[in-house]
Amino acid sequence: MPDFAIEVIKVSKEYKISHIELSGFYTLRDKIGAFFKQPLVLLKQLRTKPENFLALSDVSFTIGVGEIVAIVGGNGAGKSTLLKVLSRITPPSSGQITVVGRVTSLLEVGTGFHPELTGRENILLNGAILGKTKAETLAKFDQIVDFSGVGQFIDTPVKRYSSGMYARLAFSVAAHMDGDILLIDEVLAIGDAEFQRMCLGKMDQLVKDQSKTIIFVSHNLPAVKSLCPRSILLDKGSIIDDGPTNEVLDRYLQRQESFNLVNSQLSRSLASGLLTLDTASLVNEAGQVTNSFDCDHSIFVNFTCSTERPSTAFYGCLTIKTADGTIVWESFSHDYSANPLNHLRSGANHFSLQIPPRSLAAGHYQVYLSFSQETSHDIVDDVLVGNLELTDLSTSKGNNRNGFFSSLISWKNI
To answer: Is residue 181 within 8 Å of residue 101, measured between CB atoms?
Structure first.
């Protein structure tokens, strides 16, 4: 018996994209008629070679029994295609896939549901599709209905369900049908916070209690981070990274953003035009523009803003966020009574903000600047200064600190 649940070896999936312009005729009858009316045009179109599109390219990985793994990447990265190949909805163009155990999947809202059938009938239908007897499905019926929360409408045709009701029932069916491997694609994109919490809890329970294997595709990065110890990053059909979720998500977000290490020419202005943020950069203690810092050293955020005339009506905010968008550190220009943005000169004004040593633990962060006008809702919000990479090189003080902060305290025996 293999010690893995899924093994993928050099799998590729190629599609052919047609660029034939049908000129308004789409059916076979219309095409035949068009052949006699405009044969040269049709022959020219039919000779046009289709474009080859590689949705997956030499993808290889192994997932162990009971492992929960996230597949992350931008739109068009190949995530959904990969799940469809693993679900045997579509065959791979090349490569080998070995799946050990029964697979249940939730790839789209209401996949496998017949709109004219009721919720009850669709549960029985899905059970039959998954190879369950009617008695086995009925044994799970009450659990499925209770979890989905659609008991009041269980005998209503699902075509009258809202998208949220569809998602709840579809996930409940997939999660309770006792498959060995569960493939889930963007289930958390629909539903309220309570439904999302229930889904996360159920998936965690499936792994811990029943040793099920789960592949989870989602753009909800906080959910991926809390649920999946391991993630695989796809980009343009290829695996870019495979490892601990925190590291993979950091790399994913770095690829999504374009960070400039030289002074950025921003030209971001308030709607009123009274204040413009011209440049911004991260600078180390030696005055060099960089994005790599050690926890023991200060970080400087230098920026230039300009105004056409002296003004005393602005506020500024410096924000540092984690890779998933969580705010971990903020500073305001009016933290002290002497707000320097209240005394701007006409023309360019240069500022340098110092983030003290050991303010943050080692990790990857994003630094943003925001400005607002005191007398209105005129705001320049979350202007990206750069990607901040913090390392803790002082081994005597410990490299592996959990949490967001790395302040040192004295331990004394009194």
So the answer is: yes
Q: Is 237 helix (H, G, I), strand (E, B) or coil?
A: coil
For the chain, list the domains and their CATH numbers. Answer: 4-17+54-255 (3.40.50.300), 264-397 (2.70.50.60)
| d(C-alpha 24, C-alpha 244), whole Å | 51
Residue 264 bridge partners (DSSP): 280
CA distance 266 to 34: 55
β-pairing, 213-217 vs 181-185, is parallel
Q: Strand (E) positions, 65-188?
A: 68-72, 94-99, 103-106, 181-185
Burial class (CB in 10 A: 0-12, 13-18, 19+), 74: middle
Integer angstrom CA distances of residue 210 from 173, 187, 204, 398:
16, 21, 10, 37
Give the C-alpha separation, 357 to 318, whole Å. Answer: 16
Q: ∠ CA(78), CA(81), CA(84), 5° rounding?
A: 155
Model confidence, pTM: 0.61
Name which of 84, 114, 113, 88 is nearest 99 in CA terms: 88
| Chunked mean pLDDT (size 10), the chain, 414 residues | 85 80 58 64 64 89 91 87 89 92 73 85 87 88 90 92 83 81 73 71 72 83 80 92 87 61 54 77 90 89 85 82 83 83 85 91 86 70 82 58 74 81
Q: Looking at the DSSP assignment, which residues form a beta bridge with residue 28?
A: none
CB-CB contact of 341 with 333 (8 Å): yes
SS3 23: coil
